[in-house]
Each structure stands twice: as structure tokens, then as C-alpha cells.
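The instructor's notes for this session suggest beginning with a concrete chain rather than abstract definitions. Hand out the sequence below and ask the class to guess, before any prediction is shown, which regions might be ordered.
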Amino acid sequence: MEPLSEWESEPNFNLYENMSFKQAYRILPFAVCIVLGTIVGYFSETPLTVLCLLAATGAFVFIGMELALYVLLICLPFSFRYIIPNLLEIQTPTEPLLGMFCAVYLLKKILDFALGKQQRTPTFPFLLPLCLFIFVTFLSAINTPNLFGTLKGAVRYSTYVMFSLVVYDLVQHRQSLNRLFFASFPSAAIAIVWTVIVLFYHIDEWQWTSAYRSSPFTNYSVYGSFTAVFFLICLSRLLFDNQKYDRVMWVGWLICFGVGLIMCFSRGVWLSVIVAVGFMLLQLGKGFTHKKILFVGTVGVILLICLSLPGVYSAVLDRISTTVDFDYASNRARLLRWGQSISMFLDSPILGKGYGAFGMLYEEDVALVGSYIAQFQLGAHSEYLQVMAEMGSIGLVVWLWLNLAFLIYGFRAIKRIDDGFYRSIIIGLMAAEISLMVHFVVNNLLNGDAIGVPFWGIYGLLPAVVQIAERAEDIKNHTEQE
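After discussion, reveal the predicted structure:
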């Protein structure tokens, strides 16, 4: 019998963390001085409060990256936009934490390489397409109408993309996985309950974005997609994990996020959740027909009860009918943006017009869609078309590669992992990501932290969970052989 590999041993993890802490402790004063000095020297008008925020955030991340990850997830639904006059906007505290995560992560990798330390985790399975996507994001600046704006946006977007590497590197134990979920679920549930109360208060404006004022979310698309991520993970746990665990608690989570989804009025969210749930039901197989029937029947009864409420049926029916109504203002705006995306792509088919250029170049026809609508939502209303317009055919190919690599990796993992706990988490993460991928066909939501963080976090979390499951299986087989 061969001994367990070094990176499977728990004491080695602790040793690595102690060494990383000592390195961070020695480097921290120099790093903070360099960062603060650079910022003060370059931006003489930068508010002192922001400098203090960045310095404190950097120190916090250096000292405890895993703890900082949990803080980020707890604060995510409640982050607020802080505007620095004449400079930039920061989604606080999400984006400062993301930026520091990337800086610390890269610094640790450089230090490990310089000191000749062995990598403690296998190589990130999506590293090549991820790096290419970041590279193409910056390369698209060749054709941009605003070089500074594109580079600034590319840096910001790259921090979101690199978040997947941070999550993959930090979540390497089942204990870390449990802490991750219990840091994110209560915070998300509070945000959803808060929003549902606000929507009930503004029930007359239920189908409009204006109903979300005073809630943690800006519109129903962001709210619905965020809610769907947690709903699908809860549903997967209950459908696929037959082991002993607190089912009452998970049913409570499911009801909470399920009610939140019912209150969402986004057609894109409805479609994406239907596709994701269909994917999950296909994974049940022939031996679980009773679960399929129970789930479909329960959903049917809930929908019948909801649609029987006064005014709900007619509102939902009208909303569905607008999907093919070309006179509907939202549809006209979407078609105009799609047409503009194709036009921009044809002008620069290789590298596109530059990251963020769609908002710079697009001019909406107020006569067609109305002045109120023209003031907002300057995205292409499709993540795929926006990538195509801003980063050309090269960017679109790499973006599709990123998505397909994730799905192929997940389907292969489903076939070889039998443990109910890990299997349920893997299917739930895949369903959540599929729902976002489907919604991205008719909307672009990755520019915001409420969707960008879950999307890229799950992108790194899936391979981390798969490898935790495989290590657990290896340890189990090793123990049985002894």
C-alpha cells in the first residue's frame, strides 16, 4: 500500500498556513507602505477615508485570507457603491476585498515560486482559458475609443475573474466548504427576506424595477439570478443527498429562497430556473421517479395557489405574452442593443471594440424606447453578444471555452463521484451556473458584484469540491485496505 500523498495530510496544510502567515507578517509593513505611497503619490486628491479602507482591507486579507473570504460573502448582498469624485466608483466592501485577494494571491504565488515551495493543490483545471480570457480582455483595448476607461474596466473585471482562483485555493477541506456555505447562506437569506418585504410593500409596482428601491438589489434580474443560485443548491441537496443531515434546516432554506423566486418578475430568471431544474431532474435517473413526481407535484400546487391570488394570474400572463410582443418597450430596447452589438462586431470582428466600449458607443433611440428607459441599462442585454462586440471573435471563443470547460468537467465528475453529499453539491453548483449561463443569453449581469462574485466563485468552487470528494474517497479506500 502506498502512503497518502503529502498534500492529502492535514498537518501539512497547517504547516503551510503557519509558513504563509510568517511570510505575510514580514511582508505586510512593506506592502502597505508601498501601496499607500503609490496611491498617495499618483492620486493626490484621493480621500483619506478610502486610503484607510484599502490599507485596513489589505492588512485583513494578508493576515487571514480564508476569514476575509467569509466576510466578503457575508457582506456581498449589502455592499454599497462608494464614489470617489473624478476618479472611480467602488462597490464597498466587495471590490476592495476582491482587489486585495488578487494582489495577495499573486504575491503568495510569486513568493512560493521564489522560495521553491511545492504547490499544495493541483493546478486549477480551467487555468488556461481563464488566463487567455483575461489576456483578451486587455488586448481588446487596441480598438477602444477610451483607452483609460477600457484598461480600468479590464483591471476591475480581471479581479472578478481571478476570484475563482482564490476560492479554488482556499477551499480545500470539507470544513472550509461547510464554513463557506454557512457564511453565505444566512446573509443571502436576510437579503432575500428584506427584499420580499419591500416587494410586498410596493406590491402595486411588483413588475417594475422601481419596486426594489430600499432593498439590497437594484432590479429584478439581479435579484432573481442571485436568489436562484441559492435555491438550486438547496434543492440539489434535498434531491440527491440521502445521508443523515438536518433536513429541516435545508427545507427552511429552500422555502426562503423559493418564496424569493416566486416574488421575482423576470422572464429571463423564469427561463433560466426552468432549464436548471430540468437539468437536475435528468440527473435523478430511473430509480428516483417518486422524487420527480413529488417535486413536480409540489411545484404545481404552489404555482396554482400563487396564480389564484387576486391579480397575479393576469399579471403573469401579460408578462409572458410580452415575450413575443415587438411593440413592448423592453423588447425594442433589447433588439436595438443586440443589433448594435452585431454592428460593432462587424466593424471589429477579431478583437472587438474594447472592453466596456458598448456603453461608450451605444446611443439609444429615445423616440423608440422612451426617455426613462434610455437612461439606464447601457449593456448589450446579452453577455454573449457583449463579449462578441467588445472582445471580438477571439474573446467570444475563449468565453465559450470557459463555459464548456466548466460543464464538461462537471458532467465527468457526476459520473465518477457517488458520495451523496459531494454529488448533491456538485449538481447544485452546476445547476446554479447553468441558470446564470442561460440568463446571460438575454441579459448581461457580470459587471455587478451580486452576480459576478457568485458566478466566478462557483467557477472555482466546483473543481475544489470535486477534488475534496476524490481525496475523501482515496482516504476511505486506503483505510479499508489497511
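Then share the key points. Strands lie at 80-84, 88-92. The CA atoms of residues 62 and 104 lie 6 Å apart.
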